[in-house]
Design a protein that fits this description.
about 350 residues; mainly alpha; 13 helices; flat
Length: about 350
């Protein structure tokens, strides 16, 4: 090769390298800006959650002091309760004190027991987290596996069977499914305990008590995830780049798992985050049905006893968990499918 041709080739190579570096830098900058916008939005949503929780508890009908004083309240007792709850102070002062306590990890004190609200949350978080972790551990392989299986046999008997079963199971409410499972497997067959009564909070030492609650929690989320993964896989398998890969002789398994599946992961990740949020914050029906001492049961008891600080603390925890999980889902979806342009 002559020096001139070498110089020419070098000169031709440089302009091609430069745009790549600039393009990569622009992509990184856009990703950083997206994460920054999401963090700011998450902070604003957290502030809104705190203010909304306080406003809603303030708007509850009736007088909490009168409700806590008993059936035949004594005016002196009512006054003492109002002073203990700081209801005799202006709203803005109570809001400022409550927010200050939250910033220091102080959720307040229960009006009925005198225990710290943080202790209620810590006691109930373990069983709820255990149920959520077991459900997600089964949800991911089953949901993605059945979704990919249905997409591979689109229009065939396997696809129709999976779609019909997921639609039928999704149509059954959790409470009805739980009653059915308890009737069959606990009362009729006697294989599993009907509730978690007597097991305390150490449910991991009694795995039989977790089978029915996990099945009920798994029923509807797995149906949603299967249908979402199937739809994403079907669209990806029909896309031009998959057809292009097949024309180049790429194997079917590689096309399926390397080219098609990643494009179905972004919406599936968001659905999974919503499912985890629901599992941590919305298991009240399942915990009440199987008498599991989790956060849902704590919330029900607090509402029944009109224990406002406990209700406020749990509502803040649920709201912040929702914000954090959705923030993480948006970032993961952006990372998996940057061209989708998830709106900030």
């Amino acid at each position: 090769m002559t020096p001139g041709s070498a110089g020419a080739s070098k000169g031709r190579g440089e302009p091609r390298d430069q745009p790549r570096r600039r393009g990569g830098s622009r992509t990184t900058d856009r990703g950083t800006a997206f994460v920054a916008r999401r963090l700011l939005l998450g902070a604003a949503q957290t502030v809104a959650v705190v203010l909304l929780v306080f406003a809603l508890t303030e708007a509850l009908p009736g007088d909490a002091a009168v409700a806590l004083a008993g059936d035949q309240p004594d005016p002196a007792r009512i006054a003492a309760i109002r002073e203990a709850m700081h209801l005799d102070r202006p709203v803005h002062e109570r809001l400022a004190d409550w927010v200050t306590g939250l910033l220091h990890g102080d959720f307040g004190t229960s009006l009925t027991s005198g225990r710290p609200v943080a202790q209620y949350i810590a006691d109930g978080f373990g069983p709820t987290l255990l149920l959520a972790a077991l459900t997600v551990a089964l949800l991911v392989p089953i949901g993605f596996g059945l979704g990919v299986l249905a997409a591979r046999h689109e229009g065939g008997p396997v696809d129709r069977l999976v779609s019909s079963l997921t639609l039928a199971v999704y149509a059954v409410p959790e409470f009805a499914l739980g009653v059915l499972l308890v009737t069959v497997f606990a009362l009729r067959l006697g294989w599993l305990p009907p509730t978690a009564v007597g097991y305390g909070t150490d449910l991991l030492a009694h795995p039989a008590a977790l089978v029915l609650p996990v099945l009920v929690l798994l029923s509807r989320p797995v149906c949603s995830l299967v249908r979402l993964v199937r739809a994403g896989m079907v669209d990806a398998l029909a896309s031009p780049y998959v057809a292009h890969a097949r024309r180049y002789g790429v194997s079917g398994a590689r096309v399926l798992y390397t080219h098609a599946l990643p494009n179905a992961l972004a919406p599936a990740a968001q659905q999974l985050a919503r499912t985890i949020d629901w599992l941590l914050c919305g298991v009240i029906v399942v915990e009440a049905l199987f008498v599991i001492p989790g956060l849902g049961t704590v919330l029900l008891n607090a509402v029944a006893e009109r224990d406002v600080p406990v209700v406020q603390g749990l509502a803040v925890v649920f709201g912040v968990l929702t914000v954090v999980l959705n923030l993480g889902a948006d970032v993961v979806a952006r990372r998996l499918a940057p061209r989708a342009g998830v709106a900030a």
